[in-house]
Fold:
Amino acid sequence: MFEIFDSYCWTRQKKVLTKSDHHIQGLGNFSYWNYNTSVPPAPRHLHSDIIEIHCMIKGTRFTQIERDGTFFNYTTTGNEAMIIYPFEIHSNGSKPMAPCEFFGFQIDISKPDQMLGLDPAYSRALIRALMSVRSRQLRLTQTHLNYLRSAFNFFSERNEENNRIGVQFLTAFLFTLQFLQPVRDQNTVEIDPGIKHALDYVRSNIHSKICLSELADTSGYSLSRFKVKFKEAVGVTPAEYVTIQKLESAKRELIQTDKSITDIAFEFGFSTSNYFCSVFKKLNFITPKEYRKYYYGKALNLPDLPGDV
Structure:
């Protein structure tokens, strides 16, 4: 669960360039998929500090995203883009993915002054432009798909000179996303009312130590039944969900306040600061101190995540 990243791959149906292949600051995996058969769905996961964008050429791709205890279904078809924002739990559902062709790539915003070779001002402007897109599904033009194809082809050469050219195409694509026509095609997934009560309870008591028995009581199910129903509805265990929500809130405290890490740990119900740091690093691959070093004093002043329209 949690963070999932594809490894380098270069086959007819799937080509994946990783950070260690292209060495471009601010760019994570960049992949091209062209499957003519169904493939297993990606399990429920999230990406910290990463904006993930899938751009369909043909076929369809199903995505389910969870936000604040509500589940949204999206179907992206040819000439459409799908944007997934940092820390959003998402998956491709439980059914195999249909044959499709698309580009997918990740923009890493953990170092906001160092994006795609841009200077700090343009780097932050690019992040603001991406976070200002008001719909997560967009109608692509052929020009935009050509930008992506050109960027991927240049990056595939895996040398500095071609990377410089590829970055120009990718940057042009990203800066103009905010002007594209939104696609209004989604539906909210109704989940079990008892599980919804439990999700609401977690958010209302995020600063407390939350026991699974309390959540089960809130849902109206026995503890064993609650665990099964919760995993079916949310895709992760209740304990995993509580941890994710606490760490997301703790990250905001690390960035927006000068509270000590120990105080933040206790504020969110962790028994010790060492345990908090251990869990934080396990799920984010860096320590709270390192996370604060990246962000503290460098607030991006970004708008809230785009609404689901």
Remarks:
- The chain has a mean pLDDT of 86.
- The longest strand covers residues 50-67.
- The two ends are 28 Å apart (CA to CA).
- The CA atoms of residues 258 and 296 lie 8 Å apart.
